[in-house]
Amino acid sequence: MDILKKFFPYSFAAKKDIAALIINIIVYIVVGAVAGVVIALVAKLPIIGIIIGLLGSLVDLYVLIGVILSVLDYLKVLK
Question: Is the pTM here over 0.85, yes or no?
Answer without folding.
Answer: yes
